[in-house]
Each structure stands twice: as structure tokens, then as C-alpha cells.
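Hi R.,

As promised, here are both runs. First protein below:
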Amino acid sequence: MKHGLMRFVRAHGQTPGPGQRPRTAGAFAGAVAGVLAAPLLEWSGAGASLSSSLQLPGWLVPILYLGVATLAGALYGGVFQRAASDRNGGWLFGISYGFLLWMLGPIALLQAVVGHPLATGTAAMGILGASLLSGLVLGLFFRPAHSLLRKVLLSRSPDRSREPPRRQKPGHAG
């Protein structure tokens, strides 16, 4: 068991290195996920249900959803750090995170505040679907967003020597 954990820590590390901004990459990936999942809220009727339950104008719900998705992405990057960039597990981290946010957000916290269900039927399924889709997109897009952000940051850095050397895979010359 300890060999598996040590291998994970060596592969992902605990602390982000130079040019790595997991919270910023998470916020960017979360915003993309929010934009892609917001239409599902509207098509399922969840947007209208949330608007009437929370007594908000209809146009404000997608904007708030995008803001929450962006903050959730930043939190995702902050919690998972470099592990969120995992090629094989990023989608699983993301969809699980989307499910967790669905459980904590509209199911537990908001219903406790307003005192009644925010949505029922198709609208409730739309909220679940949007949360899962948002988490999946967040998990899949985090790695490319992090790579893009890293390239931009390192290209603007006057001191390129801060970039860590690339490790080669065992058995590859080069």
C-alpha cells in the first residue's frame, strides 16, 4: 500500500512548481464548464425553476451559474493541485467533484435556506445533469487549460531558467 501512495506523490507532487497555477487553471476550466453546462439548465426548465424558487430574474440565473462554476473550478484546482492534471483520472476527479457540488449546493445548502425543493421532476434532473456535465468538462479541460496557462506564464517570464527540466521516460534517449 505504501508503494502505491509514494508512486502517486512522486508522480503528482504536493506543491505546484514554477509556472503552475492550478487555481487559475481551475477557474478558467470551470468557466468553460459553466458555459457548456448552462444550456442544459435552460433546456430542462431548471433555470426557470431556480429563478422562481430563489425569486431572481431569469437572466440572472445563468450568470450566477457561470460565477459558481468558475469559483468551483478554482476550488477544484486548489484542492487537487497537480493531481487534477492526471491524464487517466482527471475525468473521474471532475465528474465526482460535480456530483459532490450538486449534493452540497442545490440539494443541501440552498434547500435548507429556502425551506423547499428548488426543483422537481425534469428540472431537478436538469440540475443534476448540468452539475455532472460541468464536473466532467472541468476534469477533462483542466489539463489543457493548465498547459496553456503554463505556456503563457513561462513565455512572459524574463527568467526562463526557472522552468523545471523535463524528465525523460525510462528507456528513451534524447
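And here is the second one, sequence first, then its C-alpha cells:
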Amino acid sequence: MKFTLGIAMSPLDQMVGIAKTAEECGFASVALPDSLFYAESVAAKYPYTSDGSRMWDADTPWVDPFVAAAAMGAATSTIRFYTQVLKLGSRNPLLLARQIGSVANMTGNRFGLGVGLGWSPEEFEWCGVPFERKGLRANESIEVLRAVLAGGMVEYHGKLFEFGRLQMSPAPTEPVPIYVGGHSEAALRRAARLGDGWTSAMIKSMSCALSSPGWGSSARSTGAPTSRSRSKPSA
């Protein structure tokens, strides 16, 4: 059994030391959170608390997960780093591909990508991206990331993203695993069809076990083999 250490809301000046200690203690990986900014007022409820309130405030510390992974990777040698989860909706997949490829190369292929759609309309709109069609945006973003990170000349022609032949070098020497987050049926289908696995958000092991029939049916409905659809442990 492998264990992942979640470090959400930790002081930034302690993160490298936490990663070094986690590696010494035998942890397999560190889960890195993602937050762009704190909007004073939000139009939607936070989906992972019972009352819809956020469990952090404007002064809670956050760091860009790619910067954190690079810093931690430079101070360690075996422990892996995952985003749990990076909000795809407000980000351009080509810019994101460059960040992911850079971190994967700089850490010796010790980086994995956990992704989610994002729940706050403000994060989309204030980053210049419409909140509508966020599911399609996430699907196409994952396809773009896989194509670009595989290396060589690629092009993409989707409904929301389109570009001619391009190449980013160097490509990671190993595939970057992508774990898709979310507890809805649509999220499970996305994980089965486009991901290397699934990642949870603040859900207990028993709840995961109880929800596994839905996971299996989602994998079968997409034609994805259930044996491939392995889950990433919750941090």
C-alpha cells in the first residue's frame, strides 16, 4: 500500500521541508492543492462541504503547484508529486502543457496531474473564460495535453480549441499520468474515458467502496476497461 501526503493550506516556507520529511518517512507522493485567488463573494456553493461554505479565507496561503513541485523535486529524489486537483476550466491547455512538461522533466518524471473542472464561476469569468460548457472544455483540454506531452508535431481541431502543427520540446521521457477528479456520474465517465485513474476530494475509503458500482458502470458505458481505471488514493 502506498500513501500520499496532502499539504493543502500549509505555510509556504515549510513545504520543501515537509516533502523531504515525507520522503524520509516512506510516503510515496505529495498531493498539491490549487487555488488561483479568493473571491470575496461567489455565485456558487463550494461542493465539498455540507453547507456549501469554503473552509479557507482570504489569508489562507497557497502556492502555484508547479512551482511547489519543482522546488520540492529539487530537494528530494524519489517521492512523487500530484496536483489534487488542478482546475482545468480557467487555464489554456497549451500554456498548461508547457508547465506540466517542464515540471515532469525537472523532477525526473515524478509528476502526475490531477484535474478537475473548477466550481467557481468567478474563476472562469475573471480569467477570461466562459463558465458554460466547462465539461467539454475539460475534455478537450485533456486531449490537448496528452497530444502535446507525447512529443513530436501535433495539431488539434476541436469545438473549443484549435491549433495547427506545433511541437514542445523536450517532451517528458515518460507519460504524465492524468487523474480526473469529481464525484458526479459525468466526472466518473470522464475519468474512465480520458484519465489514467480517478482522484477523490475529501471522501473516506468506505465511501469510495460504496460508490465503486457507479465507477464500474461508468467505465463500461464508455468502453473503458475497468482494470485500467485505477483510483488515486485520497489525500
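A quick note on the second one: Strands lie at 4-6, 29-32, 80-83, 86-87, 111-116, 154-157, 162-166, 178-181, 197-199, 230-232. Let me know what you think.

Best,
J.
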